C-alpha cells in the first residue's frame, strides 16, 4: 500500500513523546530521535512512524479520524474491538501485534509495522503466487481451527442483505437475489456443526510476507461464530476481481483458486463441502467489490455475483 511522507516529529511533540516513553522506548537506542510520519490511504487516518536512525517503525490507526463513507460510529469501541481481535488472533497466527491504545490521541491503536510485500503484489506480478496463496490458506486454517465456537448462520444472511441494501439495486434484480438467497437458506449447503473467528477483511493488501512468512493485518471487522468458508470465498472473489481488472480475465484466476482451496482443505470430503458452499461467499465478495465501482464494471460484478448464487441449482 502506497504512502507519502507528511511530517517529522521532534522531542516535545505529545504523540511522539508518548510513543517513545510508553510504547517503544525499550527498543530505541536514541530516545531523542526524530520520527518521520508516512500517511496511507485507508478508511481511517493510518500512519507509519519511523524512528530516525533506529531502523524501526510502528503503525498507528486513528479511529476518531474516519476518511471513508462510514463516519457514524463509536471510535473508542472500534479501537477496543480491533485491539481485542488482534490479541485473540495473535495467540494463533502471525499478525501485526497490537502494542498500545490511547483514547486521548483520537482513539489510536498502535501495532507493529510488518515490512514486506503484500499478497496483492504477488497477484499482480504472478510471482510464486501458488506458494503465497498456500501459505495464506494454511494460516486461515490455523485461525479457524483454533477458534471454534457456536455457528450463527442467520448472521451470514443478515450481512448479505445489508450488502444488497448498500447497492440500491432495481426492484427486479433485488427480487432475484432475494429468491436465490431463500433457496440457499433452505438448503443444507451452509449448515455446519461449529463456527469460528474469521479475518473477514481478506483483501490481498491485508497479507504481508516478511522473511517468507505471511502476516495478517486489520482485524477491525473480524467476526466470531462465523462460517470459515466466508474468508475463502471473499479471497476467491478478490482473486477473480484482480485478474479481471489487471491480468487479462477473471477465468485465469481459477487454477489459483482451486489450489488455494485444496491447500486449505483437510481431505477430499472437506474440499467437497467447501466447494459447494463457496459460491455463496464468493457472491458476497463480488458484491462488496461492486460497491467500489460504477457503470459497466459494477454491473459485471453484480451479474457474476448472481451467477454464483445460481450455482445452487446445479448442486
Automatic annotation (TrEMBL):
Q: Please report the stretch or stretches of sequence annotated as the Aminoglycoside phosphotransferase domain.
A: 70-236
One matching Pfam family is: APH
> InterPro entries annotated for this entry?
Aminoglycoside_PTrfase (IPR002575), Kinase-like_dom_sf (IPR011009)
Residues of the signal peptide: none
Query: Coiled-coil segments, which residues?
Result: none
> What is the protein's given name?
Serine/threonine protein phosphatase
User: Which lineage?
Assistant: Archaea, Methanobacteriati, Methanobacteriota, Stenosarchaea group, Methanomicrobia
